[in-house]
C-alpha cells in the first residue's frame, strides 16, 4: 500500500487479547484471555472521520489505543501509510507517535493539575525535540490554542487546569493533540463528559479542524447520534468485532445488522411525540472471555436461525460500501429510526391493547406486540417474518 | 390538589468565599402519578432542588426562602433568619427586610394550630415564629422605619444568633432546623430518591440486599402489619385483614395490635423487590462490586421503591450507562410508572431522556426555572432562548443531519450571578433591558411559563433564528 491510494490506515485482522490472571486456582488452569479486539479489519482514508460505536466493553477504546500504539497488538496488521506499525520499536515508534495523537475522554483527569496550559501543550514539543527555543515553543503553543478557539491565547498560556471550565480544558487537550501537526487523531469519547451546551461547540471545532488540516480522525463514542453528527463512516462494534461498517447516513437510515437495529432503537429521541417502537435486546453482553460460538450476537438476536450458533459469519459487502457481519444481512427487514410507528393497536399475540408508554415491538407488516409476547412467539403470526 | 408543591424555593450554600445561590426562586407543582423532567447543565441547581425536597441538604446548604408542601403538609420552609441575614447585605436592605417580615407574617398564621397541615415539622414553624416576633418588635419601635447603621446592627445581631451562633454539633443542628425523626415521616417512606452515579451510591462493604433491607427496617414500624394477641398470628393488611380501620383477627375475631416488620419479612420483601426490577433472587447476598453497572442501577431503583413511595426522584438515572442499558432502565421506569402509579421527578442533562419518560418539563439555568410546562408544548413551541439553544445543540438520529449550534460562553458563577437576566451574557437576543432588569415569569399559554422579557415573542416564533 502506498500513499497514492489515499489510505491512511489499513487494518487487517487486528487482534488484541488480554490475559486474565485472577485467583490462586488460575495458576493451574489453562490461561484465559479477554478477547478485547477479535479480528477487526477496516481502512481509514485521507481526511475521513470514522466513528466507532458500541456498548461499553465492546473493544472500541482498545482499537483506538492499538492504532496509536498505546497497546501492542497480539496479531494482525496495521499499515500506516504502508508501513506496519504493529511491531515498531524504539526510535521508529517514537517517530510514529509524533504523527498520531489522541484526545482523551475526561478533560478533568487527562490534564496534569500541576502543569500550566503552556507546559501541557508544549510537552509533546519537548518530547520530540521540536522548536529551538522557549520563545519558539511558546509561539507554537499559542498558535495551537488559537486553533482550538482559546482566544486570546496569551491569556490562557499560564493558567492552570483548575482555572478553566470543562469545555476550555477539552480545548486544551485538543490543542495538545494538534500542536505536533499529527497525520491522524484518535478522539476517545471527547464530548461525553461535557455539558450539552458546550458539547456542540467542541464537536463543531473538531469538524472545522478536520476541514482545515485534512486530518483523518477516529471518533470513538457510545452515543450514536453524536457519532452520526461527527463522522463520514460508522463502524459498529460488538464483542471485539466490527458487525457493520458503512457511510453514517447508510447506517442510520438502513441498518443491516440486527445489533445495529437494536442499538439505534435504544437511542432516545428528543421528540416527545416520536413513539418508540423498541427492538429490545434480551440478556446481557456476554463475557468477552467466553465468546459465544458462531455469530457472537446470536444469543441475543431476534432473527437467529440454526446456522447462527454454528458458523461465524464473515464481514461481507452487502451493498457497495455497506459491510455487515451477518448471515442474513439484506434478507431480514430491519426497522429504521425514521419508520412510521403505529400510534396504538392491539397486541397480535395476547390480544390486549398496547398501552401508551409500554415497551412494544413493531413488525414491518405492520402489527405490534408487547415485547414480552414477541419474545415468547419469536415470529410474527401474521406475516411470518420474525423468527 | 397537587401532591408536591414547591413555592419560590431558594437554597443558598455558605462557603468560605461567600454565598452560592444554587437555587434562587423555583416554583412548580406535581400531581399524583405525574412525571416531571428537570433539565439543565451541571451546577444549575437540579440536584439541590431534589435534595431540598428530601431534606438532604448538606450542612452548609440552607433553604433560605420558599415552602415545600407534600400532600398538603409542610416538608420544608425557608429560614426566616437566614433570609433576613442575606437581605441585610444588600444596599437597599430596609424595605426588603420589611417586606420579608410582612410576607412571613401573613404566611405563619395559616399553620397556627393546624397540626395536620404542619405534619411533623412543628419545630420549623416555632423557630420562625420566634424570629418573626423579635423582628417585628425591633421594627415596630419608634424611629426604626428609616435605615440606619444602628438598626442594621440590631437586626444583624437578632438574626445572627440563629445563622452563625453556637458551635459544632449545635450549630449544625440549628442549621438543619429539622430533626431526622421528623423528616423520616416522609423521606424514603413517601418520597424516595435514586441517587446520581449508582456505581458509587452503594456502600462497598455491605451486601446489596442488606442495604435495601436497611431502608425497610428504618421504617419497620410504619407498615400496616398486625399481630393477634390471642392466637399470636402475624397478619398483614389486605388479604387477611379487610377492615384496616378496626382490624379483627379472622380466626378469633378479636382486635389485633400493630407490630413492626421483622427482619425475616424485610428480607422476603427485598427478594420481591429484586423480582420487580428484574434481578435474579440469588444475587441478594452479593456485594456491589459483583454487580454490573445496570444491575447496580436496578438495585438502586429497588431500594428507592422499598417502602412504596408516592414520589420518586431520579437523579441522573442513566448518565453513567451506555445506550442499551439506558434504554432498559428507561423502559423499567416507564413500566413502574404505569403499574405502580408513582409520581416522578427525573433529573437529567439529556433533554432526549426527558422526552422519553416525562409529561412535564422544567428547564433550569443558574438556579432558576427558565421554562416550565407540558413537554409536547415546550418541544413544539419553546418560549425561552435558553431552551432554543439547548434544542439546537442536540444531535438526533431521526430526520436529516442538521448543523448544531452551541451556546456561546459557559454557565455563570453562582456566587456573582450576572445582573438582570442571568442568561443575558450568552443569549443571542439580548437587549438592554435584559442586562439590568430581572425578567418576569410569563405565562405564554395555559400551563406553559417562561422566565424571559421576550417570552411571548419567542413563543410566537418571532425570535427563532439569531
Largest sheet of chain B: 8 strands, mixed
SS content category of chain A: alpha/beta
Q: Which ranges of chain A are low-confidence, i.e. pLDDT below 50, for 5 or more consecutive residues?
A: none
Helix content of chain A: 25-40%
Number of domains of chain A: 3
Distance between the termini of chain B: 41 Å
Number of strand elements of chain A: 14
SS element count, helices of chain B: 18
Question: What Rg of chain B, in angstroms, do the CA atoms define?
Answer: 25 Å
First-last Cα distance of chain A: 44 Å
Using only CA atoms, what is the Rg of chain A? 23 Å
Write the CATH homologous superfamily of the largest domain in chain A: P-loop containing nucleotide triphosphate hydrolases
> Kindly state the mean pLDDT of chain A as a whole number?
83
Number of strands of chain B: 15
> Could you say which overall geometry of chain B the principal axes of the C-alpha atoms support?
globular
The CATH architecture term of the largest domain in chain A is 3-Layer(aba) Sandwich
Shape of chain A: globular
Keywords:
heterodimer; A: 387 residues; alpha/beta; Rossmann fold; Herpes Virus-1; 3 domains; 8-stranded mixed β-sheet; 4-stranded antiparallel β-sheet; 21% strand; globular; B: 466 residues; 4 domains; 18 helices; 37% helix
Amino acid at each position: 500500500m502506498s500513499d497514492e491510494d489515499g489510505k491512511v490506515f489499513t487494518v487487517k485482522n487486528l487482534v488484541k487479547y488480554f490475559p486474565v490472571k485472577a485467583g490462586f486456582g488460575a495458576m493451574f488452569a489453562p490461561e484465559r484471555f479477554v478477547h478485547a479486539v477479535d479480528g477487526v479489519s477496516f481502512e481509514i482514508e485521507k481526511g475521513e472521520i470514522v466513528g466507532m460505536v458500541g456498548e461499553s466493553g465492546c473493544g472500541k477504546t482498545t482499537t483506538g489505543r492499538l492504532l496509536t500504539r498505546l497497546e501492542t497488538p497480539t496479531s494482525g496488521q496495521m499499515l500506516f501509510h504502508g508501513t506496519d506499525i504493529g511491531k515498531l520499536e524504539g526510535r521508529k515508534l517514537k517517530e510514529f507517535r509524533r504523527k498520531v495523537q489522541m484526545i482523551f475522554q475526561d478533560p478533568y483527569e487527562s490534564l496534569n493539575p500541576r502543569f500550566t496550559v503552556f507546559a501541557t501543550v508544549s510537552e509533546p514539543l519537548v518530547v520530540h525535540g521540536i522548536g529551538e527555543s522557549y520563545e519558539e515553543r511558546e509561539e507554537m503553543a499559542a498558535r495551537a490554542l488559537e486553533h482550538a478557539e482559546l482566544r486570546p491565547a496569551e491569556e490562557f498560556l499560564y493558567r492552570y487546569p483548575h482555572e478553566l471550565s470543562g469545555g476550555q480544558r477539552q480545548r486544551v487537550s485538543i490543542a495538545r493533540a494538534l500542536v505536533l501537526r499529527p497525520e491522524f487523531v484518535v478522539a476517545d469519547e471527547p464530548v461525553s463528559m461535557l455539558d450539552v451546551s458546550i458539547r456542540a461547540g467542541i464537536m463543531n471545532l473538531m469538524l472545522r479542524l478536520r476541514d482545515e488540516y485534512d486530518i483523518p480522525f477516529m471518533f470513538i463514542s457510545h452515543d450514536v447520534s453524536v457519532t452520526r453528527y461527527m463522522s463520514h463512516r460508522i463502524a459498529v462494534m460488538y464483542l471485539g468485532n466490527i458487525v457493520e461498517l458503512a457511510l453514517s447516513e447508510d447506517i442510520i437510515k438502513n441498518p443491516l445488522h440486527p445489533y445495529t437495529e437494536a442499538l439505534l432503537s435504544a437511542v432516545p429521541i428528543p421528540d416527545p411525540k416520536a413513539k418508540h417502537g423498541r427492538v429490545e435486546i434480551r440478556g446481557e453482553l456476554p463475557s468477552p472471555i467466553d465468546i459465544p460460538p458462531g455469530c457472537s450476537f446470536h444469543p441475543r438476536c431476534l432473527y437467529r436461525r440454526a446456522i447462527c450458533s454454528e458458523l461465524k459469519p464473515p464481514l461481507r459487502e452487502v451493498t457497495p460500501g455497506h459491510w455487515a457481519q451477518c448471515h442474513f444481512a439484506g434478507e431480514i427487514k430491519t426497522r429504521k429510526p425514521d419508520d412510521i410507528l403505529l400510534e396504538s393497536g392491539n397486541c397480535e399475540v395476547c390480544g390486549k391493547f398496547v398501552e401508551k408508554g409500554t415497551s412494544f415491538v413493531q413488525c414491518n407488516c405492520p402489527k405490534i406486540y408487547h415485547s414480552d409476547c414477541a419474545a415468547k412467539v419469536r415470529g410474527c403470526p401474521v406475516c411470518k417474518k420474525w423468527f | 390538589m397537587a401532591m408536591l408543591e414547591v413555592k419560590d424555593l431558594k437554597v443558598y450554600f455558605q462557603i468560605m468565599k461567600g454565598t452560592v445561590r444554587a437555587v434562587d426562586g423555583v416554583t412548580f407543582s406535581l400531581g399524583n402519578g405525574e412525571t416531571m423532567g428537570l433539565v439543565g447543565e451541571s451546577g444549575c441547581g437540579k440536584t439541590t432542588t431534589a435534595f431540598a425536597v428530601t431534606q438532604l441538604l448538606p450542612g452548609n446548604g440552607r433553604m433560605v426562602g420558599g415552602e415545600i408542601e407534600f400532600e398538603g403538609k409542610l416538608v420544608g420552609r425557608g429560614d426566616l433568619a437566614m433570609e433576613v441575614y442575606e437581605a441585610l447585605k444588600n444596599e437597599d436592605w430596609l424595605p426588603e427586610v420589611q417586606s420579608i417580615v410582612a410576607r412571613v407574617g401573613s404566611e405563619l398564621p395559616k399553620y397556627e394550630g393546624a397540626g395536620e397541615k404542619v405534619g411533623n415539622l412543628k419545630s420549623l414553624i416555632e423557630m420562625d415564629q420566634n424570629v418573626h416576633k423579635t423582628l417585628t418588635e425591633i421594627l415596630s419601635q419608634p424611629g426604626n422605619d428609616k435605615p440606619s447603621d444602628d438598626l442594621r446592627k440590631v437586626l444583624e445581631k437578632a438574626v445572627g444568633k440563629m445563622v452563625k451562633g453556637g458551635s459544632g454539633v449545635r450549630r449544625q443542628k440549628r442549621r438543619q432546623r429539622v430533626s431526622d425523626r421528623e423528616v423520616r415521616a416522609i423521606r424514603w417512606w413517601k418520597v424516595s430518591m435514586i441517587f446520581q452515579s449508582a456505581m458509587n451510591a452503594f456502600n462497598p462493604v455491605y451486601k446489596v440486599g442488606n442495604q435495601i433491607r436497611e431502608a425497610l427496617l428504618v421504617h419497620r414500624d410504619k407498615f400496616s402489619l398486625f399481630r393477634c394477641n390471642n392466637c399470636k398470628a402475624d397478619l398483614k393488611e389486605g388479604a387477611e385483614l379487610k377492615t384496616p380501620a378496626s382490624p379483627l383477627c379472622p380466626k378469633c375475631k378479636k382486635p389485633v395490635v400493630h407490630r413492626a416488620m421483622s427482619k425475616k419479612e424485610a428480607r422476603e420483601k427485598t427478594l420481591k423487590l429484586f423480582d420487580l426490577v428484574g434481578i435474579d433472587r440469588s444475587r441478594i447476598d452479593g456485594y456491589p462490586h459483583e454487580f454490573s453497572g445496570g444491575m447496580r442501577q436496578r438495585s438502586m431503583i429497588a431500594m428507592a421503591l422499598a417502602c412504596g413511595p408516592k414520589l420518586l426522584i431520579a437523579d441522573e438515572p442513566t448518565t453513567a450507562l451506555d445506550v442499551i442499558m439506558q434504554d432498559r432502565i428507561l423502559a423499567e421506569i416507564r413500566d413502574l410508572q404505569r403499574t405502580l402509579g408513582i409520581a416522578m421527578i427525573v433529573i437529567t442533562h439529556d433533554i432526549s431522556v426527558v422526552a422519553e419518560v416525562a409529561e412535564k418539563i422544567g428547564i433550569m439555568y443558574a438556579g432558576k426555572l427558565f421554562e416550565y410546562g407540558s413537554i409536547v408544548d415546550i418541544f413544539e413551541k419553546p418560549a425561552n432562548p435558553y431552551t432554543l439553544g439547548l434544542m439546537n445543540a442536540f444531535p438526533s438520529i431521526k430526520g436529516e443531519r442538521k448543523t448544531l449550534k452551541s451556546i456561546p460562553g459557559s454557565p455563570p458563577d453562582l456566587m456573582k450571578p450576572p445582573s438582570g437576566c442571568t442568561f443575558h451574557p450568552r443569549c443571542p437576543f439580548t437587549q438592554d433591558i435584559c442586562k439590568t432588569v430581572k425578567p418576569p415569569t410569563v405565562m405564554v399559554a395555559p400551563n406553559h411559563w417562561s422566565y424571559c422579557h421576550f417570552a411571548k415573542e419567542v413563543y410566537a416564533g418571532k425570535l427563532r433564528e439569531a
